[in-house]
Amino acid sequence: MSSPGNQPDNKSLEEKLADALTKFLVLGGGGYGLYNLYLEDIPKAAISFGISLTTSLVTSFGQPIIDKWKSGLKSSGEKTADALNEEFDKATSRVLNRGFDKQYLEALKVQCDRIELEGFQNLQPLALDKVYVPLQIQTRDQLNLSGQKTIWDFLPKRYQTPSQSPHRRIAILAAPGYGKTTLMRHLTRTYAIDPPDDTPQFIPVLLRLREIYGLLRWIDEDEQRTCSLSELIVEHIPKQRGCKNLKPSKHWFDQVLKEGKCVVLFDGLDEVPKAQRQAVRRWVDTQMQDYGNVQFILTSRPHGFDLRPDEPSHPIEVDTRLEVLKFNNPQKETFINNWYRALYEREWSSNQQERGEQLDSEQVSAHIEDEVKKSAADLRKQLFADIQLTAIASNPLLLTLIANTHRADTFLPKRRVELYERICNLFLGTRPYAKGTKLSLTATENKALLQLLAWEMVQRETTQFTLVEATPWIAEKLARCTKGQSFGSKQFWEEIRDISGLLVEKETELYEFSHQTFQEYLAACHVKELGEAGEKILFENLVNDHWQEIICFYASQKDVTQIVHTLLQLYSKTSELYLLELAKRCSNQGREISTNTRKELDAVLLDKAEFASVSSYAGLKLILDGSSQQAYSLGGGVDLCQFSREFTEIVLKKNFNELIPIDNDTVIRDSSISGREYWLFLQDVANNHFNAPVNPGKWLQSELNDQQSHLSLTWDEANWFCAWLSTQTGLAPDNAVYDYRLPTEVEWRQILKKYRLAPHGKGQQLIPTTEAILLNGDLQAFTQSTKTAGDLLYVVRERIHMRYANLINYLVNNRWEEADKETEKVMLEIVGWQESDWLESDWLDVENIRNFSCKDLQLIDQLWLKFSGGRFGFSIQKEIYLDAGGVADFQHYEIAAIGFGVAVGWRENGVWTYNLRLDGSGPKGHLPFCEWNGLFRASRKTAIFSRAHICGL
């Protein structure tokens, strides 16, 4: 038992204060009398009462103060402790994650070092930095003629923080195959290795949304909070290729995100299943708002980002919407050269290792360059010879498929669906056998199984699958194909993955098609095989944006009359431009369509085009004047500018159906070119899709609208517009070859004898009349005579011989070397030589030249003049020869020939060198060269000049 002195003190605060005060009163000097009274047995109760009353009043007043102090000190202490703990965790994180940034960036280099789809997955893949061609980007305001831009033009500069950038939240929208994912990988790799000097040293975070949407779980059900960006990053990184051993820290990523040191790349919003897309949209938008000092870039197909009126989904607020432009010709050429160079470098490296051959680096480089030159030249020759094929090669994916096809088979398909068919046959049949890697099933059987797989994936609206999921989907079909052979699903999956390359394993046991468009093409093939049952399901999904590419691939293989008719009916009920655009795509890509349905579609498109033209001009004027930054819409949730070009193209095509005949092969458009039509040309020049020495920038403040036909053009600008028309595949009514040009003065006078100019609708129209007068006497049309000033641009379309098709396509694409050789070929064909005779003859001799067709010589010269801007052509060479002292009498004058050779760059330092500049940079008259039989003969060349003089060139 404890002694009383050791017992715990259980007195209250008031009791303790009373005791203390009693002792003070008793022991203090002033309290001596009270002490005596105390000793004299005066009742303690009286004294204690007074003391207790006093202490009670004191404690009643002081206790709340003390309690408040205690509470405040406790709260401050807890906050201090939390702060100390956080700082300790950060310090610990810094210690534990010291060097993590370097490890992480090294892992990103490995992760993004190769092209994901290039058709040779079973070999060492092609390096991204060897093949990548920078994409051209533009804002959604397609009326902007400011020219070419890349993604770097929209990213923060070194002196900016992301919060200071007007483009902190960027959405990049593009159709399938335009290189959105490759662009994201390129940005990730560039930031990880060596970002441009004028940009911040961002730490890149690449997140493919179809891979991470499953991680967006609820962290707190009560607060309805999903995981934060840093939490998701930390969980996702170790799952990526090359990142397995990394141990990312949430505190580390919290810090770099807070400090604005990250660029976060969200790739493929459209690839998220529709059921999860609303949650993903909300989460992405929240992260973009919460992390206000972070640069974000989001990619998607347009239908995955834009909301339709009937779609109750969460919008994502962005600062800038960008679009990826089609490849222009320089980009196509660069890609082809890069692709073949990377391919041959890889093959030479592999061959040297296998054979043990040790050539020095110069020998290897020489061999590689020789093979690149030959292969790339042959592909370019085929590509640029056909306007349809040139149009197909509009994006990185399709050009990659074309290059793969050319590598295996020199014959190139000219329709997108045929290209996919060829590629599938190549991957499932031809190429594996050529490389000695035999597939167990035939190409037809493998394709049928993949069609079934793609169909099941489309039904489930997914782009990824596990083998456990997919094996039952194909089990019955596989059993029928194997006919009881010992060939199981495991071997099938391995062969399709490792040999064909059409399937890729993104993560362990998680598969997808090497590109989503393969899934869509194969699903469309399955719909076709299902017949009426498949078509019924397809019609039920016409308004499902996930089916858009499937519908187009299906339409490419069928008569599209019923599809287009149904889409037009749906459009009439909903006014959704998505349906009208899909109808137009199906009509353009379909194998056939009835005349009535085509006319019905054209009427609806033209009606919409009229509205789009007026509305887009009104919007453009406000934007250019700085009066408004408003986003203009045509309804249905579609941005006006997105369709402005397409609708203007419709008007252009419609106007070229309204023609006045001049003779059997020649017609003239009955209306002058409007400002809106001329704008199409300027936009292609600005984006380098057509090469012409025209400055689009000067037109930014001009009223390029439908009401303006009196254009302030130079003669050269009018002529370049005619040249550009040859690139517009939709203008020709059939498969014939046409030349677009200005009318001759004779043709124009002939027209004015029967027609007069009158204001009509969109400008000046030729109206039949018996009077040869001009209503507007002060207006004059441009003609081929450079001496005559013009106000109105009228275009003549002349049907020419099919032999000129390749020459026109080479010239319009500035393929000068191919055009020169094609000119030689055309001229030999005109004089009647067969290709089999060419090796046994002098070919084009002086006698052939003396009798050469003036009409053909004039046409060849006109084509060269038009597409070179008056720099190349026989007429140019003739004038140079005459100025050098030559005479047009079919005689050879050596001194004049020498002077001519020096002037055009064929003769240097007293020697005929014939160093041709086939990039178009040669002096005036440098081309055409026309070597003919491989040995230039000056006498034949000067004979051409004599014939040109006689023919009026």
The overall number of domains is 5
**Helical content class:** 40-55%
Q: At the fourth CATH level, what is the homologous superfamily of the largest domain?
A: P-loop containing nucleotide triphosphate hydrolases
Overall geometric form: globular
* Number of separate helices: 36
Number of strands: 19
Which CATH top level class of the largest domain fits? Alpha Beta
Describe it.
This is NACHT domain-containing protein. It comes from Adonisia turfae CCMR0081. InterPro entries: CTDL_fold, GUN4-like, GUN4-like_sf, NACHT_NTPase, P-loop_NTPase. With 953 residues, the protein is of the alpha+beta class. It folds into 5 domains: 12-96, no CATH class; 100-325, Rossmann fold (3-Layer(aba) Sandwich); 330-414; 656-800, no CATH class; 816-950, no CATH class. Helices cover 52% and strands 8% of the residues. A 6-stranded mixed beta sheet has the order 1-8-2-7-6-3. Strands 12-13-17-14 form a 4-stranded antiparallel beta sheet. Strands 9-11-10 form a 3-stranded antiparallel beta sheet. α30 (805-812) packs antiparallel against α31 (816-830). The longest helix is centred in the N-terminal third of the chain and has 53 residues, at 44-96. The radius of gyration is 39 Å and the shape is globular. Residues 1-8, 21-42, 118-123, 614-640 and 769-776 have low confidence and may be disordered.
